[in-house]
Amino acid sequence: MSVFVHNHNIQASKPMFVSQFMYIDFIRSLSGCSMPYSQKLNSIWKKRFGEEVDEGLLFVVSVERILQMEDFKEVGKWVSSSDYRSAQPDPLRDFAEKLVNEINVNHVEDVNRFCNVYVDLNFQVSEAKLIWVDRLGFDMRLWSPSKGLFEVRIPFPAEVTDEKGAKSTFNCMSQLAWEVEKNFNAPDFQKVKEVKQIS
Prior knowledge:
Shape: elongated
Strand content: 25-35%
Number of helices: 5
Number of strands: 8
CATH architecture of the domain at 95-198: Alpha-Beta Barrel
InterPro entries: DUF2470, Haem_oxidase_HugZ-like_sf, Split_barrel_FMN-bd
Order of helices and strands: EEHEEHHHEEEHE
CATH class of the domain at 95-198: Alpha Beta
Structural class: alpha+beta
Protein name: FMN-binding split barrel
Pfam family, one: DUF2470
Radius of gyration: 23 Å
CATH superfamily of the domain at 95-198: PNP-oxidase-like
């Protein structure tokens, strides 16, 4: 996999969070590339950014593998460039933020109930909030006055493929959590045990 970088726009003074580290096989100036490859990249640049580019400012980076990390304190997972290139984007990406906001505003009791029912906690949670949702589940942030701030990932019972499926699954999980809390139903799932303290 090759990535081309225009070094004129890189501003080292700006802080940035990087969720992926790349192991770079080699870097070479675009001016050293073959003519068809050089023309192709120039064409892509012009189409995408609407301007000509000085080939002396373009570099080709060949990526051998990518280290996917959620947090600098955690162990990441190495992904080959071919697997990374062929990966499919999450089907909920276009409306995940809207869905999270909607759930946090309209389903506060359900979100708080999820902590007690779906997560194995040894402390009392005073505030819970959904922070993200994808096809496999959702991430929550939990606050405990005595213990601090935590994040937890609660998986869906099955993968979802669209917004309707995500809402339906959330509603089913909410109903089950309510039934378990009220002792109308016995839990037939394993509680999440991995809770990450973030402060």
